[in-house]
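Our preliminary data section would be incomplete without showing what the modeling component actually yields. Below, a chain of 284 amino acids is followed by its predicted structure, encoded as tokens that our downstream tools consume directly.
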Amino acid sequence: MMFSCTGGQPLEKKAQHVVFIGMDGWGAYSMPKADMPNVKKLMEEGAYTLSKRTVLPSSSAVNWASMFMGAGPELHGFTTWGSQKPDLPSKELSHYGLFPSIWGLVRDAYPEMEIGYIYEWDGMKYLAEMQAMSWEENPSDSEKTAKAAVKYIKEKKPGYVGIIFAEPDYTGHGAGHDTPEYYAQLKKLDNYIGEIIQAVEDAGMTDETIFVVTSDHGGINKGHGGITMEEMETPFIVSGKGIKKNHEIKQSMMQFDVAATLASIFNVKQPAVWIGRPMDEIFE
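Predicted structure:
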């Protein structure tokens, strides 16, 4: 039984395990044509939207930061694709020395929880409270990222793990978005997600797990950062214990609402400086 770090009252999480899977550069526009049976099964068995909107610019660091930090760049201060520190002074800092994010909130609420962070793009380490992690790993490609995640889940049975693939963004920049190469990469990623889902099953965690699958931005031609809907709309899928099945989310969803929704899953109070709103309609 875990207890609140403030009031001493037991916290009732929606599930004992949360597996967060991020795919950099995965645009919602791709879903009708994408061969992604594992992801589409999570949609059928859970709740989803294909119109979660990025903050501007529609690029990586600013959007991963917003996703984790429950606020936009005006507040957390990360404003460019590769920000390694706030470009503007953060409106507030937590005791970790960073704008408060879901990682630090969960660590403070659940001091004994196993929390893992496995990320392919090196820039991810600047966007979360690394001191909050029980384990972190930075593999060199998507296959190794998936293998690391499978090994970690089976060995540690984490309460919270973030697994962030750098693809299909690299393929989008190389071959282009909405190309055969892009869809081939999505199929590979779906296979990796299938391996992660199987690892959860093998670890005996399935009945107490919520999966979250999402992205920071989409793209158009060979880039992103602009204001087209191909760049700005991304999927958000949540599936597992206590989640409605085959439910299309009706609330308008922004990038910073991801953190608020995770906070609701973990039953932790979000900071007043956050502007995100939880998508509470996802729960049964």
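The chain has nine helices and eight strands. The chain has a mean pLDDT of 96. Preliminary results of this kind motivate Aim 1 of the renewal.
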